[in-house]
Amino acid sequence: MILYDYVLSASCYKVRLMAALLGVRLEVKAVNFHPARDHKSAEMLRLNPQGTLPVLVDGDLVLTQSANMLRHLARQNAPQWLGEASGQIDPWLDFAGELNASLGMARLHDVLGFDADIVQVRRDGIRQLRKMEAHLAEQRFAGMGFLAGVAPTIADIACFPNTALAPDGGVSLDPYPSIRLWMRAIRSVPGFVEMPGIHRLHELAPAPERSR
Amino acid sequence: MPGRIDGQDIAIWRGASGQVHAWGDRCPHRGMRLSHGFVRGETLACIYHGWQYDADGGCDHIPAHPNLVPPKTICATTYSCAESDDVIWVALRPTDEKCPSLAGLRGVRSLTIDAAAEQVASHFGQAVNAILRLGTADNITLALQPMDADHCTAHALSDARADRTDVSRWLEHQRRVIEGQPA
Amino acid sequence: MTPEVANHWYPVGMCSGIHGAQATQLLGQSITLGKTGGQFWVRDAGGKALPVIERFGHLWTSPGQPNRDLFTIPEAETPGRRLVDCGSVRVKCSPLRAVENFLDIAHFPFVHTDILGAEPHTEVERYDVDIREEVDEVWATKVKFFQPQAAKSAEGGITTEYMYRVPAPTCAVLYKTCPPRPGEWDVITLFVQPLTEELCEVWPWMALYDDDTPMADLVSFQQMIFMQDRSILENQIPRKLPLDPGMEVPTQADLTSIAYRRWLKRTGYTYGAQVVAA
């Protein structure tokens, strides 16, 4: 499977993270999104006329929506990641799209200088974070640590990147203790990989011996 | 985890033994926020250069100089911190006061509100106080953390038998009213 | 704005990325820049033309009267190198904090974990630092550090040697041993455009001996490293760089930073610096 990837893209990271958690090896092809805008190159437009990243190619199958990539990876490798009922999962995949339009856009504005109504996208992002915070608190009352149950699903992977990267776009995660617990739970899943802006949880590795 | 009290940024962390600590949210080395750091045993390490601070706030390990015993002068700012009845209490100034008792109640959740603590208290018809007992059937009680002129966090508790989801949704509603958003 | 700050050259764009007119900021002032008939130009808010230099793939200007040419990097001009335009990343921090972080190796194991450094190889051995009066630059040499993944093909770690050079207050050049060409140095730079005292546009640029790695991978690697630093830089308190001792505690590993701060203070470069009131 080939992933056309941009290292700073939250959507590309969803796919890298899902693959890593499933132990699937991806052939990652870096695309120079910034500064060269190679995602709009003739070669990339042939593959994906919408000119967006990521693009996942599996044999004859070409996927251009990250939610579909998560479904595809889970279906082929570990269907438990699809959750028990798609009715519990799909709304969160849509929600992840909303996060991308709000927090994701705030981040592109603050990091790469994209044009955006920064006040509005941050405000939208905060409203969505509050919604997620309330939901995760209720999940915890019911003994569940993830968006759709006791175990992580593609819903969590879809929502995690833009949430965890919110501070890149000037949106603090300080007010959301349930979200922070949830992020910690995701980061503790065996096989988790970071992306720039999400640092390593050094406490998960054994402390090195001190020479002194 | 990060916190803010009266405009002061605080790093709150729990050692492996369960002991909680509240420090100024700043590593003395390069000013990095300690709340981004990581806990190893009974030490908190800064994420930037891995400097480790023991339970007293003193730096006890500098990874760039593993054989050096750090001078006693390198230390984080520490505050009194205690845990009682599901709530962590911090005092920015030394105090003999004991934490208020909230025995019999159970923590529900912590809500940050875009309003000053005074405004939250007056919404519930009370004077601003660390503890607001709202007199509801579920004995909903707020431990109020004043953050700055425009923000506070309400740490909500209720009877152990109460349905926490109901309490949580009621709190969300109250927050919308306090913040003046359409309910 | 004092002459000590105004009379320097600053990067304001990547030559390959400038087409029509575009607006940006420099030292808190609005400027416009663009390309007309193959010529680059920069104007201040009042429409006055500012001097321009094209160098290292970037456009440079100055709001003051620089009394010398923009620095050069002779090593980057040797034939056979690939010049890598990395674009820019915006950071909510002091331009001086961005440079100082670039000069620091002790954070590699914690911020660039398993890439530029890894526990338990955290020790920073003594290295040489001097302020070279004749060229008015800060240099750190014989800097050695364990690097777990020196190159994609490299198995296991190696000790990498670095040299750091600060040729201007908001620019730094890193020379790094080059695995395919022992005896040569790869050149990696950080050009910082101060938008304000607490906001900057950072333009990394590289001149490497590497004929094999696709360009997109080289850019991606550099952006990955810098974005790992960004979440640190946006969380340092205070945002401005304290030039006076007392506020922060340096150790021997921070000799480059100590010299950098001393040099800034001595030359009166205070934009983005926190100076204790007299």
Structure in words:
The complex is a heterotrimer of chains A (212), B (183) and C (278). Chain A has two domains: 2-80, Glutaredoxin (3-Layer(aba) Sandwich); 82-187, Glutathione S-transferase Yfyf (Class Pi), Chain A, domain 2 (Up-down Bundle), CATH 1.20.1050.10. Helix content of chain A is 49%, strand content 7%. Chain A is globular, with a radius of gyration of 17 Å. Chain A has seven helices and four strands, in the order E-H-E-H-E-E-H-H-H-H-H. The longest helix of chain A has 27 residues, at 86-112. Chain B has helices at residues 117-123, 164-178, and strands at residues 2-5, 8-14, 20-24, 38-40, 43-45, 52-53, 59-61, 78-84, 87-91, 105-113, 131-133, 141-148, 151-159. By secondary structure, chain B is mostly beta strands. Chain B has a five-stranded antiparallel beta sheet with strand order 1-2-3-8-9, with no helix packed on it. In chain B, strands 4-5-6-7 form a four-stranded antiparallel beta sheet, with no helix packed on it. Chain B folds into two domains: 2-81, Rieske Iron-sulfur Protein (3-layer Sandwich); 105-178. Chain B is built from two helices and 13 strands. In chain B, strand 4 (38-40) and strand 5 form a beta hairpin. Chain B starts with a strand and ends in a 5-residue tail after the last helix. With 278 residues, chain C is an alpha+beta fold. Chain C has helices spanning 3-6, 95-102, 108-111, 215-233, 255-267; strands spanning 10-14, 22-26, 29-36, 39-44, 49-50, 52-55, 58-61, 82-85, 89-91, 128-132, 137-147, 158-168, 171-177, 185-196, 199-208, 241-242, 273-274. In chain C, the strands form four sheets. In chain C, strands 8, 9, 10, 11, 12, 13, 14 and 15 form an eight-stranded antiparallel beta sheet that branches. In chain C, strands 2-3-4-5 form a four-stranded antiparallel beta sheet, with no helix packed on it. The longest helix of chain C has 19 residues, at 215-233. Classes of the chains: A alpha+beta (212), B mainly beta (183), C alpha+beta (278). The B-C interface holds B 9, 25-26, 28-33, 36, 47-50, 62-66, 68, 73-74 and C 106-107, 109-111, 119-120, 122-124, 231-232, 235-238, 242, 247-253.
